[in-house]
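U., I forgot to send this yesterday:
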Amino acid sequence: MKRMAAAWMLALAAGAAQGQTLAEQNEALFKDLKEAHGLTDDQLAKVKSIFAASGFMGQGNPAVTKHPMTTEECKQRRAAKSVGDGNALFEKICGAKHMAPLYDPKTEKPEDAKVCIDQFEFPSIPCLYPVTWVRANEAAEICSAMGRRMCDAHEWEGACAGALEAPDYDFASLKGMNANAAQKKIRATHNAKRNVPKHWAYGNAYKKGVCGAASTKDAKCNGGNWQNCGTNTYPVGSFPDCTSELQVYDIHGNAAEHMNLPLSEAEMASKGSKQLGHTEMKGSWFIWDHFQAHDDSCRWRAPYWHGSRVMDKASHHNYHLGFRCCKTLDGK
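Result:
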């Protein structure tokens, strides 16, 4: 980890020498966050402090990142599909811009939702690049600073599959197990019951070209080397067809996303817990059409890659790992 940090800092310095700095990118991002989400000065100060403590977090190390699409191209693609940058009904329900209500369309209406999720990967502003190099604890802290929270695994899965289902964590079966055995069982049990038939946000089979999953700057990019891969993400929302029935974008491709996997009811973010459980990496990232390292269907739960408690200060971060937030609706 120390060697990786040293190499990353050297690359960052090289980027600064070319006239680009992570700090400059982040300052522009903070202005966009304040304007788009109406953050108070105190909220923005907290977000800034989390970024500052990280030293890595941002929209990609400028020395090694080559985004495959500009923000202007993203806006043109969305306009061509007549996709707007806001939804008045969603904003009324969620009390915030660029969030979507989570519910089950078979039995509920959007107004029945008890929770909303960011429509886009953080910063959840259409046509900005997603923030990566985020640790799970940092993601949880940023969501909290913005008046939101980290999502539980089943909420992300519902956003992807187009129907929020009841939690299925079966905590009773985990009693007496250590954390490693418990998280392994809860994933395997869920996958056996909930992932058949498989479903993706856009349909019942994986499709290339639908989502932001074909970005590579180097033929040596195999998914594991940040220097060859960079954070070569697309602007969020730049693939209008890469959306679920609940109008949540970029669930597949672009950046993978931190979520909370609770091992007890006391660790459920959706129940108001601040304790939180263990890390769950959701979705896939921007090279997926070339290199599919695992299943990325909606209700599949990943192995415990680089796993830790969510609030562990050494939780995992990397060049393709970001997040999105959820929000419990007051009075529901």
